[in-house]
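INTERNAL AUDIT FORM
Audit reference: QA-55
Scope: verify that the stored structure record matches its stored sequence.
Auditor: D.O.
Record contents follow.
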Amino acid sequence: MTGVVRTGGTERGRALVIGLGETGVAVVRTLAGEGWHVTVVEDAPSGTPRYAERAHEVRVLGAELVETPGGARARELAAGVDLVVPSPLVRPAHPAIAAAEALGIAVRSEIDLAAERTTAPIVAVTGTNGKTTVTTMVAAMLDASGVPAIAAGNIGRPLIDAVADATVAVESAVIVAEVSSFQLAFAREAFRPRVAVLLAITPDHLDWHGSFDDYVAAKARVAARQAGDDLLVFDADDARAAAIAARAPARRVGVSARAEADGCFRVIGDDLVFPDGRPLAPVAVMVRALAHDRTNALAAAAAALDVGARLDGTVAALGAYATMPHRVALVGEASGVRWYDDSKATNPDATRSAVSSFDSVVLLAGGRNKGLDLSVLAAEAPRMRAVVAFGEAAPEIAAAFARSGTRVERVAGMHEAVGAARRLARRGDAVLLSPACASFDAYPGYAARGDDFVREVHQQVMEEATSR
């Protein structure tokens, strides 16, 4: 690097931050505080939440803000710095990233910068589905054991801010971070979690990564820099996670839904058990214990116990853990039909997992496809009473079930979808919003989509049921 000053083990020079979301501001706050000269590029100011507030903050911090620079200007800016930090979702083909990589300038994610700025143990959780649940479970198990835990990363608070919290306020804390494939793709130099949790890897975000192989390679970075005294907890039932684990440098332990999976955390009969078969906790202690709930609980326990959680604290946390919003969350029951919000299911594997928990389902699916193969949903057709397809991907959802004999109705939006599901469902059915697609064709995020579903269910189903 040129123009870089090393002080106290940290290199300082000129940095380019791409994106002025919450992560971008956190990076500016850290780098500017260390004496870096920081420039921020924001390609879409009008589409960035709280943009004016964030623009004011980074300017007060001394950063230069360049709005909608265009390709040539972005490449020029990258050529004049020592470090480029892309925010999550900034694509690898961004002109500034491409220019920096061509010139040999470091391109590093926020989680990579955070990792080199702390000595606190980090538990990093990734995979395609279940990341947020496992992250919050680990934090709850540690807290219940008297170990201070800070949940951060893709779950909400930027990891680089959590690192500052752990350093200044809670020196004994464990940082539990949900990390996405977008963040891991640029975690190239320093990201080494004390415990890495690698859940099942199935196709997702192919529109961003370009190929499934690149997506898997990004996920594999969670364990790439671990050493022999670190731990990798992995889904032993998933071929890709198991393959990554087989070549990982750290200690390894699997979690499995198979009772016969010796050497793994698993379920035998009515108990969650340790790898050697000793009971960990009764399944009955869990508030909800669907198949994926059990796997998530085992992964969380394996990670938490390795960084200081006690067995009694782990069991207590399992007994108190409430279902995360928009993840197969029961909205209500009327006329013998249960209504569930699983809006967080933004890929086909998540939807298939949710559907497999029920015997008879009216599925609400659709939204914006992320370049994924939706035809795999047809494997769950025997459980489907009907499918209600909505959003941009409605034609693809309908095509997925075309040869299955499953009834499919296409509708315009959520109001019509709930109305159709109410008409199609029969006593004993589960009506399940589990879209298999992103929400951005009609909503700012999956939570807004789920909230809209809940409103419609209450207005169209629950209120009428109580008025009879």
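Auditor finding: record pair retrieved intact. DSSP finds 17 helices and 22 strands in the chain.
Action required: none
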